[in-house]
Amino acid sequence: MPAALEGLRILDLSWGIAGPGGVLLLAEQGADVIKVEPPGGDPFRAYSGSHVWSRSRRSVTVDLKREQGRAAFVKLAATADVLVESFRPGVMERLGVGYDALSAELPLLVYCSVPAYPPGHRSAGRPGYDALVQASSGQQWEQPGWRMGPIFLHMPMPSMGAIFLVPTGIMAALVAREATGRGQHVSTSLLQGAFLYTTQIWQHVEHATAPFHDLMGKSYPPGVHQQFIFECADGEWLHTSVMSGLTPTKTLDEVLGLEDAPDGFAFMSMGSEEREAFTQRRREKFKEHDRDTLVAELQANNHAVEAIITMEEAFSHPQLVANGMVAAVNDPELGETTQIGVPLNLLATPGAIRGPQPRIGEHNDEVWGSLGLASTEIAAITGGA
Q1: Which single residue of 79, 207, 361, 374 has CA 20 to 30 Å from 147?
Q2: How many Cα atoms sit within 13 Å of 3 on the Cβ side?
Q3: What is the DSSP letter of 62?
Q4: Would strands 58-61 and 229-231 be described as parallel, antiparallel, or unpaired?
């Protein structure tokens, strides 16, 4: 059965997370993706995550600083539908393969750029990394953590947001090409990826009061959500939602068997010391219960609650395994690995992992040879001579 994007060819010149990760979503729906690397390879191969971001594609190397290499690349681009790059504005132009140069020769080409900042931004010409975009977009300030003030985010939010923007922009441009008969320049950025995730935060900035921000605080000082994470017996944890919209048939304290518990209105009218004393009683009562048994009983009484599990547990969860969201991939450098599976399910044309991250230039002979280049020419453009 052919995959949904079979017949679509993408040249991936991007580094980091956003470009390769966004292209991955298309590669595993059938697109033929060729990772185009400089001699020596993509420097982000040093990150273990690249074994996932850059899987399901072939790899060629080419020295775009050589005229012979640039000419060969343009010949390869003529076979492609899409080109993706993540350099600072102006870099591709200096190499002679910017959008204007290529579109003049290849009007059908969809050219996707994923820099750190969008064109015209005051920092567009500066080196941009996820952590710096976190800082310049307000993310580090809006996600308080182990102390007051801004913190570095463990999740690379700008890159993760841009991962979704890359294939969306590409597919929109391909649909438009069907109507117009021309490709176009698609542009997004890590900064725009960060904003993709922050609709709720910016709503709060415009409309919410300071006490509401305190209520919603992620961890320090702890807001309402943090206070509904409870430790159960044997050091296991659960989280019960306070904003589910469900009407419980028994209160949380009734399920726990906590005697003399106040109702919600009485609890809110207590003084702070009295509330804290009761909350501590409730926390101690949780520790008397087996987590999974308590979760089942709470759910049976119409509470929104889930066990808090580790990532190791998540990767072995029967539902994730059954959905194909956990996959074994035999990597040429790492050996057998456990990776996230294909996150899009097309029932009529299912996607699939199409192989591990290729070795640097693994497909040089195959790809460049298909364009009629002799072995001596391939060696010249890939840095082998």
Answers
A1: 207
A2: 20
A3: -
A4: unpaired
In this predicted structure, which of 131-135, 213-217, 236-240, 285-289 has the lowest mean pLDDT?
Answer: 213-217
Whether the Cβ atoms of residue 66 and residue 381 lie closer than 8 Å to each other: yes
Q: Please, what is the average pLDDT of the chain?
A: 90
State the helix-helix crossing angle for 18-27 and 157-180, rounded to 10 degrees.
50
- Distance from chain centroid for Cα 300: 34
The confidence score (pLDDT) of residue 384 equals 67
C-alpha closest to that of 384 among 37, 39, 76: 39
- E strands present in 3-122: 9-12, 32-37, 58-61, 82-85, 110-113
pLDDT over 90, % of the chain: 66
Question: What does the pLDDT read at residue 120?
Answer: 84
CA–CA separation, 279 and 57 (whole Å) = 53
Spell out a b/e string for 15-51, using b for 16 or more CB atoms within 10 Å of the CB, else e.
bbbbbbbbbbbbbbbbbbbbbbbbbebbebbeeeebb
**What is the bridge-based pairing of β-strands 9-12 and 82-85?**
parallel
Q: Which domains does the chain have, with CATH numbers?
A: 9-198+343-381 (3.40.50.10540), 212-308 (3.30.1540)
What is the DSSP track for 130-177?
A: HHHHHHHTTHHHHS--SSSS----SS-HHHHHHHHHHHHHHHHHHHHH
User: What secondary structure does DSSP assign to 326-354, as a single string?
Assistant: EEEEEETTTEEEEEE------SSS-----
Q: Which residues pair with 214 in a beta bridge?
A: none
Tokens of 121: 């931004």
H or E element in which residue 26 lies: helix 18-27
pLDDT, tens only, 114-161:
999 988 888 888 878 898 998 888 888 766 666 777 888 888 989 999
Tell me, what's the pLDDT at 218?
Answer: 55
Confidence of residue 28 (pLDDT cuts 50, 70, 90): very high
pLDDT computed for residue 137 by the predictor: 85
